[in-house]
Amino acid sequence: MKVLIAKEQGKPFIMGETDKPQPADHQVLIKIKSVGLNPLDLKIKNGKAAHAKVILPAVPGIDMSGIVVETGKDVHDFKPGDEVFGMIGSIGGHQGTLAEYITADADHISLKPENVSFQEAAAIPLLFITAWEALVDQINIQTGQTVLIHGGSGGVGHIAIQIAAAKGAKVFSTVSPDHSELIQNYGAEPIDYTTLSAVQYVQKYTDGKGFDAVIDTVGSSVLDDSFSAVKQYTGHVVSILGWGSHSLAPLSFRNAKYSGVFTLYPMLSGERKKYHGDILKEASRHLENGKVKVRLHPQYYSLEQANEAFALLENRKAAGKVIINIF
What we know:
Layout: E1 2-5, E2 14-17, E3 27-36, H1 39-45, E4 63-71, E5 83-87, E6 101-105, E7 109-111, H2 118-123, H3 125-138, E8 146-150, H4 155-166, E9 170-175, H5 180-186, E10 188-192, H6 198-206, E11 213-216, H7 221-227, E12 236-239, H8 249-253, E13 257-260, H9 265-269, H10 273-288, E14 301-302, H11 306-314, E15 323-325
Parallel strand pairs: 8-9, 8-11, 9-10, 11-12, 12-13, 14-15
Antiparallel strand pairs: 1-2, 3-4, 3-6, 3-15, 4-5, 5-7
């Protein structure tokens, strides 16, 4: 089968061939149709994601959608012909999804909704799982709560807005003015971070009381701002990029909480893989009923055009999730 290979850090990908994998007893073999690229894929390519434990040369790619073509003897929930999607590749030494075929643990994938294209399904897994773990697992978001989502026009951000809105929360998001209409369409009140400081927008939108929850998808100084933006006693900050050194004093003075989300852990450890599959079933329900839609870059790419597709990420030119089709 054809595969894409990351041979050296920071170098262009090359095309290659390898044997088609065979499914183990609890695995399925999937013919990949589409792959959604993530910023993490780019960090892996450039040697800036040691936490992902990918050793080059390797086949890159984390997310995918495709069709089951074979099942192991212990698989009962899927059959050949089923259209599926999942976050199953690259991390922790697994084969990546930028290939014609891949094997996956049956607990780690979900059926693709019929009303969703392969491209849309391939864009969802990492984004939805991360946003769900932040909003549902960590915060347990409730109807009527106020939620501030930093970076709402980004991948995880725009999915998090829609999940929070579907849960009945009142959602706000920090964005640049050119993305205000986009954010409103997702269900959030846009906050112009280019003209308002954290102190100013907390005063303007919460009368100085702070938000019930803050989701940080940006990291660095934005996480520091988040510690000052939550409510006294009951506030909860969750970050997906809380890897720097930060003073917890503002959070401590508010008697508030902080949690981190590390979406890759099940793929690295082998633990809780089934829970990722369960979250993807939630994603399917949200996609089916139209409560969540994913923003795609308008142009699709082929496997042979992968370097061009990754250049979009590198140059920050993508207008949505970048998709590579493997038909």
